[in-house]
Amino acid sequence: MRILLYPFFLLYRIWFYILMALPILVxxxxxxxxxxxQEWYPYFFKMARIWATVILFGMxxxxxxxxxxxxxxxxxxxxxxxxxxxxxxxxxLYSTKNPFVFVGKKELxxxxxxxxxxxxxxxxxxxxxxxxxxxxxxxxxRRLNQGLSICIFPEGGVPDDTSMILDEFKDGAFRLAIEHxxxxxxxxxxxxxxxxxxxxxxxxxxKMRVKAHxxxxxxxxxxxxxxxxxxxxxxxxxxxxNAASV
Length: 246
Description:
The chain has a seven-stranded mixed β-sheet, with helices on both faces. The longest helix has 29 residues. Helix content is about 45%, strand content about 15%. By secondary structure, the chain is an alpha/beta fold. The protein starts with 5 loop residues before the first helix and ends with a helix. The model has no long low-confidence stretch (mean pLDDT about 90).
């Protein structure tokens, strides 16, 4: 029976990539101008949010955000969430007006058109280069000094085991947050995997629930507290995922 849906899945994927490209083409001159200077990044971020909104609603996704916190204008945060779908990027952009910079895989810079802006606005991680981590910290510091926030998916990728609800978190986001004394802003994405997973023949329109959790402070903490804060953040997201699955 599922094989009968393959043409729909194929067209749905093609439509997704069309939606990724169309807003970029329409806004291209303004996007290029907004990346000429780093201090103009907030203007780029506003257009990125428009891009994300077009994709989410154009795919028939209906974001539903439940908030335990409202982010303050001008405050820097470390945004983190679970990671299961390409739509996590769009959902993160849609969920907050606070300008932030993604820390992401260098490989995504190879995507046509999207990659052109991705590598010029995000902090790229090259896992094959031992020096990359130091470069990430230096780049993040420059962005935070500009009053921006940072977003990292701390699982470091999508869990390989399809039965796994949440992979272990890597240290980078929490180390950065402690070093810069900015609060952790956890989010849980409930339906992104069901709506549009990395499995090619899958996906469907429908609601996409987001939970914006209460902030986890790092003020006064030291690097030796990194593991405890990391585990606390993971537990918050894991409990939310488990509660929704009951």
